[in-house]
Write a structure and sequence with these properties.
Strand order of the largest sheet of chain A: 1-2
Helix content of chain B: over 70%
Radius of gyration of chain B: 21 Å
Distance between the termini of chain B: 29 Å
Number of helices of chain B: 14
Order of helices and strands of chain B: HHHHHHHHHHHHHH
Number of strands of chain B: 0
Order of helices and strands of chain A: HHHHEHEHHHHHHH
CATH topology of chain B: ABC transporter involved in vitamin B12 uptake, BtuC
Oligomer: heterodimer
Largest interface: A-B, 47 and 49 residues
Structural class of chain A: mainly alpha
Number of domains of chain A: 1
Distance between the termini of chain A: 61 Å
Radius of gyration of chain A: 19 Å
Helix content of chain A: over 70%
Number of strands of chain A: 2
């Protein structure tokens, strides 16, 4: 491998990892409140299509990202109402949300198939000009630079604020939280709003910064990989950074090897991220120590 | 006995009424959404009704579309009986198609009475083995089967693409990647100049067998015990591990039959676009049917009708087929909201 390929791998790992990190952080917040949301894949799709459409219409990618975050939170409120407000089964509702968003994003994205957009502008570090390997390695868009600080902020919110403590209590035992005078249902709604915002941003980063196109179902299972990453990260936002880089790396390596004309079928290479995810889950399952919130997946039915 | 029948009938009709209401609300919501997008929902609905009920061919196409849904719904319902969530029908369908294709391409000269049973078996084994991976991981308490079946859904179509772009590529179709056409003996027979094929009978047989096993045998009773409380079932001496493996294999196999039927009856070769999400729709069908055999039959038919709305929207109003997912999902949203988890004891 020569230097150009290595730089390419690092740069595209960071780009692919960013979207995974936002998605994983969103899911962590939700799961910490005791709600597992398999609809993340759908929220990302909505973020990708809305972000792309808004960018195409307004010509401003930042507005696109904002629209994506808003729409991600909005569709997640359907899920939140059903699982928190109505006590519906979380897994089935999440999958249905994924299905719903797949259709909705196909519809809203249709007029924008093949549209050209100007993506999120790259902001080179240290005032590097364009061109050259150093510039490729050190110039990313704003969402990349914000990813790690957002992870830190989520960590701070969860572990260093009163709200985070209340949220984690709800995730461990809504009944205890309720008895302590907290409001588990409201906390879960708040967590899911935040999860939707982050999921929408994650989707937007793919369409507005990475591919600069919209295609039906373009997130291709990254939402499910992010859900697996939550387990990998042991529900800790800081570990999520490492996980996102690792999985972004798998994707980046695969893209760069293809670009370099490796002798392996692209279809085999495309399997890498999914198989790596499964492998990591197996290894983690082996260690048997679970850090999952105790009340994950259960609905809270008020005073019990 | 008669009284039980009467109660069951009342229950079923109450459920049917509740469901009809949910469907009506969903159809209205979807119409409003289409109208907001500048489309004409009433014309789409009318076109669909004319298309599917207006002539015999349209109706036969409903049966064609219903066939894979019955398979994939049973593939979800069977594991659900022991508390497993199999969301991997899509991948299992592709792998069933894959192995059936391997058989059809390897044995081009066999007569149909040898080849067809073999292809059915291969389709079953292909899907079954694919589902056995999550089954083993679950049985060993390593990975939750929901997430592993979901992930494998993205791998199986890549295997199919690899094969038809590589080793199995038809040399005679240079620009469109697909496998060579199967020999006539490897084609499942169709009926009455329509595309309705023997796969429908196979699907109904699977459904009947599913009903029989779950409702009338000791295995069904064991499965109910495991679904209720796996730990208690284990202490009673029920081989829970064995059930997990057997049920996942059988479920994957049944989904694999859907793929086998698609390649041997409809396509006549392996192609990359085998399924517009049959595996996922099967999940919705099974959930709405609450895993009952009769419910699966009714819901598979209904979702075949709804899929036709997607076709119509695609053909006459230039919308992607996937848009119809919205309609399917909204029905399930309403049902999920009406029947909270607490009432079903989950």
């Amino acid at each position: 491998m020569n230097a150009a390929i290595i730089i390419g791998v690092v740069a595209s790992s960071i780009m692919s990892g960013t979207s995974l990190l936002y998605a994983t952080l969103g899911e962590i917040v939700g799961e910490r409140s005791g709600v597992v949301n398999l609809g993340l894949e759908g929220i990302m799709l909505i973020g990708a299509s809305t972000g792309f459409a808004a960018t195409a219409v307004t010509g401003n990618a930042y507005l696109g990202v904002a629209a994506a975050a808003f729409s991600g939170a909005a569709v997640n409120m359907i899920f939140a109402y059903l699982v928190v407000g109505r006590g519906a089964n979380q897994l089935a509702t999440g999958l249905t949300l994924m299905f719903f968003c797949f259709g909705l994003s196909a519809m809203t994205g249709r007029p924008f198939v093949g549209t050209l957009i100007t993506g999120l502008p790259r902001l080179p570090l240290f005032g590097l000009g364009s061109g050259g390997a150093a510039a490729r390695l050190l110039s990313y868009d704003l969402l990349v630079y914000l990813a790690a600080p957002v992870a830190l902020t989520v960590w701070w919110l969860l572990y260093r604020t009163r709200w985070g403590l209340a949220l984690r209590t709800t995730g461990e035992s809504p009944a205890v939280a309720f008895a302590a005078g907290l409001r588990p249902e409201r906390l879960r709604y708040q967590a899911l709003v935040l999860a939707g915002l982050l999921g929408g941003i994650a989707g937007a980063h793919i369409s507005v910064a990475l591919t600069l196109t919209w295609a039906e179902g373009m997130t291709a299972g990254r939402g499910f990989i992010a859900i697996a990453l939550v387990i990998f990260a042991k529900w800790d936002p800081l570990w999520a950074i490492a996980g996102a880089l690792l999985f972004g790396g798998a994707e980046g390596l695969q893209l760069q090897l293809q670009a370099a004309g490796a002798e392996v079928s692209p279809f085999i290479m495309n399997m890498l991220p999914y198989l790596l995810t499964l492998l990591v889950l197996v290894v983690w399952g082996w260690s048997r120590r679970t850090a999952a919130p105790a009340a994950l997946g259960r609905s809270f039915v008020g005073v019990e | 006995m008669q009284r039980d029948g009467a109660t069951a009938w009342h229950l079923a009709s109450a459920q049917a009424k509740a469901f009809a209401l949910a469907a009506l609300v969903a159809i209205t919501v979807f119409a409003l959404l289409l109208a907001a997008a500048g489309k004409d929902p009433l014309r789409a609905y009318a076109d669909t009704l004319v298309y599917v009920f207006g002539n015999a061919y349209g109706f036969s196409e409903l049966l064609v579309r219903m066939t894979p849904l019955v398979f994939t719904a049973v593939a979800v319902a069977l594991p659900a009986r022991i508390g497993l969530i199999n969301v991997g029908g899509e991948g299992q369908l592709y792998m069933g198609a894959c192995l059936a294709t391997a058989g059809a391409l390897a044995l081009p000269d066999q007569p149909a009475f040898v080849l067809l049973p073999l292809l059915v078996m291969l389709g079953f084994i292909g899907g079954g083995l694919w589902a056995l991976v999550p089954g083993v991981l679950r049985a060993l308490h390593l990975v939750n089967e929901t997430i592993s079946t979901l992930l494998l859904n993205y791998v199986a179509p890549l295997i199919v693409s690899y094969l038809i772009f590589g080793p199995w590529r038809d040399p005679q179709s240079s620009f469109y990647p697909q496998s060579p056409a199967f020999a006539d003996a490897a084609r499942l027979p169709s009926f009455l100049q329509s595309r309705v094929h023997a796969g429908l009978l196979l699907a109904l047989a699977c459904l009947a067998l599913y009903w029989f096993v779950t409702a009338r045998t000791r295995f069904g009773l064991d499965m109910r015990a495991i679904g209720g409380n796996p730990e208690a079932a284990r202490r009673l001496g029920i081989p829970v591990l064995g059930y997990i493996l057997a049920v996942m294999f059988a479920a994957g196999g049944i989904a694999g039959l859907a793929g086998m039927a698609e390649v041997t009856a409809i396509q006549g070769r392996l192609v990359s676009e085998l399924s517009p999400g049959y595996g996922f729709v099967g999940f919705l069908v099974s959930w709405l049917a609450r895993t009952t055999a009769g419910g699966i039959l009714a819901m598979a038919f209904l979702f075949a009708v709804i899929s036709s709305v997607g076709d119509i929207l695609q053909i006459t109003q230039g919308l992607p087929f996937a848009v119809v997912n919205i309609l399917m999902a909204v029905i399930l949203f309403i049902v999920l909201g009406r029947q909270p988890a607490r009432s079903t004891g989950r």
